[in-house]
């Protein structure tokens, strides 16, 4: 009788634990700006899976968000940088025996690139002889400079979209913009929201070729960047078409346009 009672009690406790865990998973939603023990647990699990969630423990910052997006991309989940029920369940299971990688090793490259962003941005402030500063970008505006930017941008038309991509083998939106401008000696931050914080704001009516244009897509605030090429069009790296030209004022992009910056 005692033995049967113990087994029944154990079974009941196990069922209670499973139900509680399931309820926790279904109720868990963590996103950029959140803090606490749940965030720490997510960061620790991301690191176990091989992703570089290096924000201060307990703070859901840019590094954690980036790591979550890479994890989601690798697992075929919607890429939004938010820990919802599906991402939570996938993440909190047993870590893989080998480090997850995106197609063409993009994840490995992206994590390495992301961890170097801060150093790259700091170094760009010290670049000598280029008269370029991240928070006050300056360069003599001449037709040749603008032409060079547009010509460089057009070279990569048709290059496929790769999440975390920063080279001509595959770009994401902000990686493409950064790469094109770097070829002309202008150092830009890596991410779209960071790029939005440099240069001088430009109204829609005063846009000129070479200006950066920004859109609100999968999250609030600037999450997609491109290069204005004139005549109401811009070029950017898109997830559906790769590097391609699109209309600024109509359709999908027209509804999501939020502003522009001039960095030349």
UniProtKB/TrEMBL annotation:
One of its GO terms (biological process) is proteolysis. It comes from the Bacteria. GO terms for molecular function: cysteine-type peptidase activity. Residues 143-264 form the NlpC/P60 domain. The keyword Cytoplasm does not apply. This is Hydrolase. Residues 1-25 form the signal peptide. PROSITE patterns: NLPC_P60 (PS51935). InterPro entries: NLP_P60_dom, Papain-like_cys_pep_sf, Peptidase_C40, Peptidoglycan-bd-like, PGBD-like_sf, PGBDSf. PANTHER family: MUREIN DD-ENDOPEPTIDASE MEPH-RELATED. It comes from Veillonella tobetsuensis. Keywords: Hydrolase, Protease, Signal, Thiol protease. Belongs to the peptidase C40 family. Pfam families: NLPC_P60, PG_binding_1.
